[in-house]
# Entry
Amino acid sequence: MINAQLILIVGLLGLVLLDLLRRYRNFSQSVIHYAALAVLLVSLVSEILFGNLNASFFSEVQYSYFINGFILFISTLIYSFFFADKKSFSPLVDVLFIAAVLGATLVVLSSNLLAVILSIELLSLSSYSLVYFGKTLGTLEGAMKYISTSMVSFVILLFGASLVYAGAGTLSFSNLSSVNYIPFIAGLAVIIAGLGFKSTLVPFHMWAPDTYEASDSTITAFITSVAKAAGIVAMIRIFFFGFQVSSSFVTAVFLALALFTIFLAGIFAIAQDRIKRILAFSSISQAGFAFLGIALLNLQAVSSAVFYIFSFAVADALLFLSFRIMEEKGIRYKKDIKRMFSVSKIATIGFFLGVLSLFGFPPTIGFVGKLLILASLLSHGYIYIVGAVFLMLLLSVFYYFGLFLSLDFKAYSQNKMKKINSREIIILIFCVSLFAGIAFATV
Amino acid sequence: MVALEDVLFLSISLFAIGIYGIISKRNGLGILVSAEIIINASLLNFVAASSSFLSFSGVSYALLVLVMAVLEAVAFMGLLIAYYRKTGSVSLSKLRNYRG
Amino acid sequence: MNMIYFILIPMLLAALAAVLLPERRAFHAAVIGSAVSLGLSLFFLFDYFNKPFLESVNWFVSGGFTFSISFSASNLTLFMASLVSFISLLVLVFSNFYMKKEPQRRYYAEMSLFVFSMLGLVMSNSLLLFYVFWELIGVMSYLLIGFWYQREAPAAAGKKALIFTRIGDLSFFAAVIILFSSAKTLSITGILSSIGSLNHGALIASASLLFIAIISKSAQFPFYTWLVDAMEGPTPVSALLHSATMVAAGAYLLVLMLPLFLSAGFASMIITFGFVTAFIAALLGLKETHLKRILAYSTIESLSFMFIAAATANAGGAIFYLFTHAIFKSLLFFIAGAGFILFGSYDIYKLKSSVKNSGWLYVPALIGFASIAGLPPFMSFFAHLSLSANFTTLDSVVFVLLSFITALFSFRAFFVAFKKSAAPRLKRELSVYVPVLLLSAIALFGGVIMFYFTGIIHTVYYVDIFSMVSMLAAFAGAYTAFELFLNRRLLRQVSAAKNAAIKLSERSFDSIITAFGIAFVSFADIVGRLDEKFISLFSWISNYFMSLGLASKEIQNGDSSTYIAAIFLGLVIVIIIAVMFV
# Structure
C-alpha cells in the first residue's frame, strides 16, 4: 500500500544514498535538492490520492487527510522557497527537512501515546539542526535556547507518559480508560506541560520569540506553521481521540491557558520594535485561539480548531516567507516598513494579506476560522469567554495596525517592473490559498 | 515483587531531584545530566508498571524511550560543543543577544 | 435566477480596468461602470417594483452550517442601490475636474472598489456578507482619506478613521456571532423573523453591540472625531463617502435591523444619543472656520436626525432624509471643492476677504445651506416634516431648538464665505456644472417626491404646530446669522457676555434672538474644550497599553534558565487547575 509516509521514509533513505553516490560520481548538489523536492511533491500527491498509514501505532481519523494534506502542501512550498533562496547548501538539510515533515505527518496519525512522543521527537530533533542552519552565533543562540527548553519539556512529557502508563496499564488510545485515577490525572497534567511547549502555549512559549527571531526566516516559517500545527494536533489527538476524558478539568485548563496565551502574547507584542519579534508574538497568540476551540472537546469545536490551524499556518508561513525577502535588504525595524514596497511589490502584498488574515479581516480564511471558533464557543454558552476574547481582539488592533499602517503603496504606475523571481511566485501561491482555502472548510 | 506505589514514590522523588537540578544549574551539561535523571525516572516507571500489569509492552516502550533519550542527548551535546567552540564557555546564561 | 448581483459587477470591472488601462482611461472606466450600475439598478427597481425576492448562492459548508451569499431585491434595497450609483456617478464626473492633477489610476480604482462594496452592502441579505462589505468600505475609506499619504495630516486622519471604526467593526462581528448562535441563521430576514424567540440576554447584547457599530461608522457621539479629520481627503471622497454613502451605512443598518432595536427597548437611548450628538455637532460647527469641517459637523448632525427618526419607529422618514441629505450634502461638497479649485482656500474667513464674488456658485450654495437648515420650499423642508412625524412633544421642543442652531451655523458659513454677484467667473467646465446644477435642481424641486415615497418604504408626514414652529426657528436662525455675521462682523472680538447684556437691555425682538445666538456661540466654546479633553482620553488609553507592553518586555530577558523556570511554573499552574477542577 502506497501512502505518503512510506514515500517520505523511502525518499529519506534514498536521499542519503544519493548523497553517498554524489561523492563518488561527482554530480552537483542541486540534483539532490531537486530529488528532495520531488519526494515532497510525490508524497503530497499520494496523500491526496491514496491516504495515510494504518499500522500498529498509527491510524487515520476524520481529519487526518486534511491536516496531512496541508502540512505537506506548506512544507513543499517552504522547501521550494528555501531552495530558490539559497542556491547551494548541504544535502543534509534536505534529509533533516524531510525527516521533520515525516515527524509532523506521523503526529497526526498517532494512535498511541508513545507514537506521539516518537513523532514529536523526530520533528524536534530535525528542527534543532535546521534552526542552526546559518552557523552563526545568532542562530546558535536560537538553537541552544530551543534545545534546552525542548529537552526539559521532553523529559517532563516522558515522565507524564510513564505516569499514565502506571495508572492505566496501556498507552494505546483505543484501550485507554480511566483506571487508577490519580496517576492518570497527574500524567495528563504533565503531558499538557510537555506538549504545550511545541504549540507555544503561555507560559511554555518563552523560547519562541528568541528562536523565531534568531533563525533564518524560511526555517522560522517552517517552525511556526508545521511544527506548531503538529504540537496542537498532538494535543487534539491525545485529548479528543485518545482519552475520552470529558472531565471539566481539561476544559478548564485549556480555556485558561488559551486566554493567557492570547492576552499575554498580545501585551508582549505591543511594545516591540523589531518586525520579526512582532510576527513571532502574533503567531504565539494565534495558537491560543486554536486551543479555545479544542477546549470544548466536541466534534464541531475541534473541527473549527483544525480549520483555524490551517488558516494561521498558511498566514504565518506567508508572513515569514515575505519577510525573508525583506530581511536581506535590511528591513528589521518597524520604521523600515516604509521601504518594503520598493523592495518587492509581491512580497509586500503578501505581507499585507497575511496580516489581514491573522487579524481576522473578511474574506480571508483567518476571518472564517475566527468566526467558526467563536460561534462554537458561543453555542455552548461560554459568553463571558467570548466577551474576553473580543476585548483581546481589540487589543490586537494596536500591534497589527502598527505593522500595516506604516505600509504605503506608491503609485501603481511604476514603469520599471522587476522580473518576478521564483520566490515571489511561491508567495503568490500562498496568497491565493489564503482566499481559496475556504473550499476546505468542509472539514 | 516490589509494589507499584513504592516505585512510583521513588520515581517521583527522582523527578523532583531532576527538576531541582535543572533549575539550579547554569551550565548546559548540568541541565543535560539532570534531564537524564528524569528520563531514568520515567524508565523506572515504565518497567515497574509493566511488571505490575504483567505485560511486556512497558519494557518495549522503555527501550524506545531510551533510544530517543540518547539521540536527544547527542543532539544537545553537539550544539553544546559548537557553542563551546565559539564562545569558550558552557554557561547558557551567556546567551543574551535576543531579548526583550 | 434573476442575476441581481449584476448591479455590482460593473464597478468591480471598472476597478480592474482602472488599474490595467492607461492612465487617462481610468476616469472613463469608472464613469461607464457607475452609469451601467445606475442603469441596472433603475431597471431592476422599476421592473421589480413591489415584487421583492431573494437570491442566494452557497459559499461554504462547515460543521453543519451552510454559509451562503444572499442578496435581497426589495423596493428599499433597489432604491438605495440606485441612489448610491447615482451619487457615485455624479461624484466621479466631478472628480474629473477636481482630481485632474492627481494620480488617476489609484484614485479611480479605489473609488470603484468603494462603490462596489457599498452596492454590495445595500443589497445583501446575509448579515455576514453585510459585515464583509462593511469592513471593505472601511478599508476603502482609509485608503481614500489617506490618498495623499505623503503628507502627515491625511495619513494620520486615515489611521484615526480606521482605528475608530475598528471598534465598531469588532462589535459588529461580535453581534453577528451572537445572532448567529441564537437565531441559527445569518440572513437578515431570518433573524428579523425570529426576534421573538431570541432569549433576552442575546437580544440586549446583540442590540448594544450593533449600536456601538453603527455609532462608530456613522460618527455619532462618542466616535465622531474621525469624520471631522477625514476631511483631509480629496473633496470628491468627502462628497461620496462621508456625506452620502459610507456614513449612511450605519443609518441603513439601523433601519434594516429596527425591529431588533425596538424590541430590545433601545429607542429612548438612541434618541438621547442622537440629540446629544446633534447638539455637540451643531455647536462645534459654529466655531469652525474650515468649510469642509463645518460640512462634516453638519453631516454628523444630519446622521443623528436619521437615527432619531428611525428610533421613533419612522423608518420612512429616516430613509427619505437619507436621500435628501445625500443630494444636498454632495451638492455642498461639490461647491466647496469648486470653490477651493477656483479661489484657493477652504477657510471661510479667507474666502470672505480674498474673493470678490462667488460667481455662479452663489445660488447653489444658498440652496445647499438652506437645505441644511430645512427651509421651505426646498426638499429638505419636506424631509424635516417627514422625520419629525412621530416625535413626542419633548422631542419636538428639542428639535425646535436644534433647528435654530442648525440654521445659525449653516447660514454663518454661507454668509461669511459666499458673496452675491452678477458676473460668472468660471470658464465652461461641464464636469462641474452638470453635477452642481443637477443636484441644485433636485434639492429645489424634489420636495414633491415625499408624497410618492411611500411606495418605497412606508413614509408618513405630519404637519402640526411644532413643525411650523421649527420652521420659524430655522428662519430665525438664518436671520440671526445674517445679523451677526454679515452685518456685524468681528463677532469673535466682542465680549460675548457684554453683548448679551446690552441686547437684553434693549428689549427688542430681534435683539433677543441675537442674544440667543451669541449665547450659543459662547456655549460652543465650552463644548469645544470638552471635545479636546475627550480626544486626549483615547490617547491616554493607548499610552497606558504601550507602557504595559514596555514593562512586560522585561520578562523576556533572554536567559534560558528563566525560560526553563517558566516551564515549571506552567506545570505547577496546570496541576493546580487540575486539582481545583477534579
Summary: Chain C touches chain B through ten residues (CB under 8 Å).
